[in-house]
Amino acid sequence: MMNRLQRLFRRPLKRHFVLLDEQGLCRALRQCSEPPLETHWVEVSSTSPAWLGQSLPADARISRVSQSSTTTQAFAP
To answer: Residue 66: is it exposed, middle or buried by C-beta count within 10 angstroms (0-12/13-18/19+)?
Structure first.
C-alpha cells in the first residue's frame, strides 16, 4: 500500500538542457523532465550560469547511443 502511494506522488526526475546557437554557444539553460520540443537543445549532466555565451565544457554533454548503432544485422549482403 505504501509503495503505491509513493509511486503516485513521485515527482519526475529533472533533466538539464542547454540551448546552443549556430556557433555552438550556450544561449539558455533549462531544467525539465522531458526534452524541449524546439531544436538545438542538448542534454547535459548539469548546468552552470557561467556557460551562457560560452562553448560547453567537453564533458558536459550526455552522449546518447543511437538505436541504429546498437542493433546488428542478421544477414550481411
So the answer is: exposed
